[in-house]
Amino acid sequence: MDSFGERLRKERQRLEMSQADVADKIGVAQPVYCKYETGAIAPNINIVVRLADLFGVSVDYLCGKDGGENDG
Predict the structure, then answer these.
(1) Nearest partner of 51 among 65, 68, 63, 41, judged by Cα
(2) So where are the chain's domains?
């Protein structure tokens, strides 16, 4: 099963976005977003919700509780 960070990377790449693009859209600095993808730090729930909305997936999917992609 993919980790949270791996799912972030996969969704970001699916949308052909850079880390800087995602960081800008969710309101964090690019180095902070990079740490989310690498697992160095975990985002708070508000950021997780923003990421799910941006990627068009469920929070459960990002957190590994739901195996399906694009559940919205």
Answers:
(1) 63
(2) 4-62
Check: CB of residue 57 under 8 Å from CB of residue 71. Answer: yes
State whether the Cα torsion 60-55-22-16 is positive or negative: positive
The first and second tokens of residue 71, run together, are 């559940």
CA 54 remoteness from chain centre = 8
pLDDT digits (tens, 9 = 90+) for 20-35: 999 999 999 999 999 9
Through-space distance between the first and last CA atoms of the chain, rounded to whole angstroms: 20
**Cα of 32 vs its chain's centroid, Å:** 12
Domain 4-62: CATH architecture, name and number where available: Orthogonal Bundle (1.10)
CA distance 8 to 48: 10
pTM: 0.88
